[in-house]
Design goal:
single chain, alpha+beta, 2 domains, 2 helices, 40% strand
Amino acid sequence: MITKWLTAIGTIGASVVALFLAIFHERLRTLLWHPTLDIALENQPPDCQLMTVTNTITVIGATNAGAGGVQAGCYYFRLRVYNNGRSSAEMVEVFVEEVHRRRADGTFERWQGFLSLNLVWAHYNSPYFPRIPPHVYKHCDLGHILDPSLRQQFPGEDIPTLGIPKHQTVMCLGLIVRPSTGSYLIPPGFYRLVIVAVAANAGIARRTVELNLTGQWYADEERMLREGVGLTLL
């Protein structure tokens, strides 16, 4: 009799375990095998580097427009979005949540007029990256700095009403759209940008990037990344 009871209890126990696994299998799999996003950035190549951009549209007053259009030096700055998890991150997006500017007293003040928008993925010009496999990163455009002497010859790179001196550099954020208010253009100063990365099947990764934009332009890449602009991930 005791043996029969033990057998029955064992059978019931096995059934309960099987039922538990059947119900919570997907939840357990998600807990153990899920993507984990992280954001990285270094103020050096390949995250930051000098390139040449061309405007093939005819621009009034262009002084160096040849058959190939107007060419200018341009520094690109990119974030690395890592997937440190055990499964692929699906439909990943990155956006600038907030921008804070340092005041003269050393405190930071939130830029109330800044419109939070998605950044685009490098080389894809899309706000969504379909899939990042485990232990792989993809570059997302944070922004670029164009040679200020040629800024007026590229559409959207210069807005006179912002009052930015023509000889000073401006950080143009790599947003999916450029608001008519001009909030995608960051004038010289010291800033903190709150960056958020998220996926359809992953939690939020939030990091802060300190941006020190001196306003100076240097055609020498090493000097520019040392004296012209500084980027630090907090």
